Amino acid sequence: MARDPRYDILFEPVAIGPVTAPNRFYQVPHCNGMGHRHPRRHAAMRGIKAQGGWGVVCTEEVEIHPSSELTPYIEGRLWDDRDIAAMRLMTDAVHAHGSLAGIELAYNGHHAPNRDSRLPPMAPSAGPVIAHDPISARAMDKTDIRNFRRWHRDAALRAREAGFDIVYVYAGHDMTTLMHFMQRRNNRRGDEYGGALENRVRLTREVLEETRDAVGDTCAVAFRFAVDELMGDDGIAADGEGREIVEMLAELPDLWDVNVSDWSNDSVTARFAEEGYQDPYTAFVKSVTSKPVVGVGRYTSPDAMVAKIKKGQLDFIGAARPSIADPFLPAKLADGRADEIRECIGCNICVAGDNRVAPIRCTQNPTMGEEWRRGWHPETIAPKASDDPVLVVGGGPAGLECALQLGKRGYPVTLAEASGALGGRLNGETRLPGLASYGRVRDYREYLLRQMANVDIYLDSPLDADAVIEFATPHVVIATGSTWRRDGTGRTLHEPLQGIETLDTQKVLTPDDLTGEGGGAPLGRVVLFDDDHYLMGGVLAELLAARDGTEVTLVTNAPLVSAWTEYTMEQHRIQGRLIELGVTIAANRTLSSVTRDQAQTACVFTGRTETLAMDTLVLVTARDGLDGLFRDLRTRQENGGADHIRTLEAIGDCLAPGSVANAIFLGHLAARNLEGEPWDAALFNRELPEISL
Ligand code: ADP
Ligand code: SF4
Known about the structure:
Layout (H helix, E strand, L loop, with lengths): L13 E3 L2 E3 L3 E3 L11 H13 L4 E8 L12 E2 L6 H12 L4 E7 L15 E2 L3 E2 L7 E4 L2 H20 L4 E6 L5 H6 L14 H4 L1 H14 L4 E9 L12 H9 L5 E6 L2 H4 L12 H4 L2 H4 L4 E3 L6 H9 L5 E4 L1 H5 L3 H6 L14 H7 L34 E4 L3 H13 L3 E4 L8 H5 L9 H12 L4 E4 L6 H7 L3 E4 L3 E3 L23 E2 L1 H4 L9 E7 L4 H11 L4 E7 L14 H10 L3 E4 L1 E7 L2 E6 L5 E5 L2 E5 L2 E3 L2 H11 L8 E4 L9 H14 L20
Parallel strand pairs: 3-4, 3-14, 4-5, 4-6, 6-10, 7-9, 10-11, 11-12, 12-13, 13-14, 15-16, 15-18, 16-17, 18-29, 20-27, 21-22, 21-27, 22-23
Antiparallel strand pairs: 1-2, 8-9, 19-28, 24-25, 25-26
Helix pairs in contact: 1-2, 3-6, 15-17, 15-23, 20-21
The site of iron/sulfur cluster has 13 residues, from helix 12 and helix 14.
């Protein structure tokens, strides 16, 4: 299809210093948990983005020296010449598709405890490292500053040698020494590098000039700068020193890459910020500099992108998460397929991968991180191995993804869903506060499935084993989902909650009840026990606290509300919101027993108990896979009653209840593997240590 002319402006080439980007789609630096440990995997991921039309594709932070390294987090590395070859894998992969490759050189100062190199961290002024390690950074003296400048220059030369077109000077996210020098709170120096703003900016100016001098004839020099730290006068602010810094350095870099800091403000989840949330802070930059500007804001809508360019706020549409969710976003626009864009839902599961020191994964894009290891491509999949029909039972995330990929492979697919709508758990969960964007997981897949001539969708079709056998398909995939437990068992309680049998059933609720349609009745004094620790406990507390006649006490044995959301960088916002809503938080306490109108909690450290008055108990503890149908069919198979079923597989929550990302991944995996080789570790590409015998 032809490109919609409204989007032509997004496909204009733009010069950046000595290089030219083929269009305005700019994948800004983003972490991915692969970096120096998985260079082939990393290069393949970046190469796919270039193939998908991103005109500029950047690395994540790249450490320039062992005196600032982020172990256990896995970033890029250019410590010395031995690292060049691994980085070249990426530039080759990006150049193969005509895009520019950018590298974000990083020196993290007192953000880096140097857990591996064990070298003492350095900072503008002495003080404890930001990570909770029992070590302080020492203040950099003039020799240290000279060394740092030399290391940065050397790294820039190595970056050019590795083939990069854009070399970053990085002062974003409250993570780098250059930013620390500029911040009043981290720079208490009395020399020419401290005090007045001009002095605090001195090192950044020197590094920008030296980078330009070293590589600026052939490489563009980009400056990534957080113009606002969202801390008012305590930090850099767009209406204060942030703007002054842009004014001071306006023409020095070839490109301004601007954002807000810290990372949790830069990559806010959809629950807490809309698309374009950074505009109020970054919009001024273009009026101060003549150099091109890139900015981010979880842009997935092409109309919003065009508006940014036309209004003269940005020259490039920067994206990390939208390029992760859909590496082919630009290509789809170029082909007139805007309706096929797989939009980021703003869940930050990608960030959680990095924060858990695991390679990146994405809720919307199950191929993310698997490009080299499993050889998966986000847009293509092997054609069917036979004409055998497949029955997929259950139209939640797992069933939808599996049916979609099987449909793409060309199999005749039947998707049977018990309820009147596709979407499974998403249909209830998207009604919860701030979770509407999760509906994109369903909508993207349903939209494509509905257009496939080889896919039949049956709603209101609960199937039992007899019905499945009647379908007579040789391949059956069961994606029947999960249900929340009602007895309090989970991570903490291994036996049903003491006294639960004495409560009326309507006094005990689970997320399955509260995410359903209707509701809204006052629940009196609610005790919500969260032993799950991800989103659900916190979001239900938020839902109920806003309900008239309802008071909520959230009991959790974790130290924080929705503790796992620390990895998605939402935890502090969730807890703050609940406090504002008047939710009582009983952390580090477990639920030990209940009576008709009381709940007893126990301190996880001392066992000391307290009693709470209670009208309603909400249990967010654990989910059980609804695998009854799968087990029935397996038994029939084993007893010779379903011989025509050649493959029978359970996927998603019915197999292993988990995140939506997990269900999508398992659905995708099953579709890729159908009629393929049985799984074996040897099918995984692995980067093995080089050992010469
Ligand atoms: P997942 O995250 O694994 O996709 P969900 O719970 O979101 O799981 O979705 C499971 C879907 O399966 C639900 O829409 C549910 O209505 C449907 N389902 C469950 N049992 C059956 C069945 N026996 N026949 C057809 N559909 C079913
Ligand atoms: Fe977007 Fe979530 Fe994918 Fe990250 S994991 S790119 S936030 S959909």
